[in-house]
Amino acid sequence: MDIAVVGINHTCSSFTLREELTRAFEKAFAFADNDSLKCSYVLLLTCNRAEIYFSAKEITKVHVKILNILRRYVSFAFEHALYSYFDTDTFLHLARVSSGLDSALVGESEIQSQVKLAYEKARKTRNLSSSLHYLFQKSLRLGKYTRSDFSFSKEGNHLSTVILKQLQCTFEAFDGLSVLFLGNSEINRRVLAAFMYKPFENIRLCTNHKVDPSFERRFQGVEVLDYKEVENLSFYDIVVVAGKYDKYLIEEISNNIPKKRIFFDLCVPRSVHPKLQHYPDLTLFDMEKLSVLFDKRQKFYKKELLECEEHLAKYVGRYFLLFHKKSERKKFYQTPTTLADVS
């Protein structure tokens, strides 16, 4: 299929290195007018991974070119932290990603929509090869199959579930608590949706963009503010940050009020300065700390996960062969024939 992927995720590097490489992937390949690769590709950036899926006739040359481009943005050795897959291994990898098997929170639901959004964005901004279209469409289909047939994908494997459980361990009750969401991202909206069913005193969201009517209908009662509200962080009990920022959004808290608080930084690179964890009565969770809580689920579903891996490998093999058969038939019918060829 002439497809490959280069990437980094939560399993193969330190959190700091993953932050730097995520920045590099975004700067190098995220913009629509950036055609430095001269090939078809899809960039997938989430809070726990940065990957570029690409297709080309000379796949190894493009692979080398990707590494050289990344070196422009990273000043230290990083190649040891990256993984690369080719052909059917690429297919199996994306199927595992879409199914939530390769996630820090095994079976998480957010990754399916993130893969779809990355594919849709690439499809709208550049011409994709038939190989990449096939790769993403079939991997998304396998992700849906996994979620409908295996229990580890059905039983509340949401980031919001983990966050709410942590809040229950921190506070005796939700009544009277004030919540601030920073960033109108897809992840924040998913967490916000779960918070709507809890008796918080008030929930507010900060964004620089006007929210659409569908947001107002879905999140009635949520007050929308601009980022000036960051100056009033000390008055909130819970702060959830999820978005893309060029630098730390929160570096300190002015007028610090001594009370129990908890911050969730769902960004990679981080948007809340790590020094805030030293503030009295403040608990800071970034994605690295949250991943420790995620590990427990993988041990619980170990047997079923192995069964799911086997199913995915089988279907990926079938889809891969089917693509090649279709490609061969297409080449046959496109080959010009003459009387001389027949005789």
TrEMBL record:
NADP(+) binds at G183, N184, S185, E186, I187, N188. The active site is at C47 (nucleophile). Residues 6-148 form the Glutamyl-tRNA reductase N-terminal domain. SUPFAM superfamilies: Glutamyl tRNA-reductase catalytic, N-terminal domain. GO terms for molecular function: glutamyl-tRNA reductase activity; NADP binding. Substrate binds at T46, C47, N48, R49, S103, E108, S109, E110, Q114. Pathway: Porphyrin-containing compound metabolism; protoporphyrin-IX biosynthesis; 5-aminolevulinate from L-glutamyl-tRNA(Glu): step 1/2. GO terms for biological process: protoporphyrinogen IX biosynthetic process from glutamate. Its EC number is 1.2.1.70. It catalyses: (S)-4-amino-5-oxopentanoate + tRNA(Glu) + NADP(+) = L-glutamyl-tRNA(Glu) + NADPH + H(+). Possesses an unusual extended V-shaped dimeric structure with each monomer consisting of three distinct domains arranged along a curved 'spinal' alpha-helix. The N-terminal catalytic domain specifically recognizes the glutamate moiety of the substrate. The second domain is the NADPH-binding domain, and the third C-terminal domain is responsible for dimerization. Homodimer. During catalysis, the active site Cys acts as a nucleophile attacking the alpha-carbonyl group of tRNA-bound glutamate with the formation of a thioester intermediate between enzyme and glutamate, and the concomitant release of tRNA(Glu). The thioester intermediate is finally reduced by direct hydride transfer from NADPH, to form the product GSA. Catalyzes the NADPH-dependent reduction of glutamyl-tRNA(Glu) to glutamate 1-semialdehyde (GSA). HAMAP family: Glu_tRNA_reductase. This is Glutamyl-tRNA reductase. It comes from Aerophobetes bacterium. The gene is hemA.
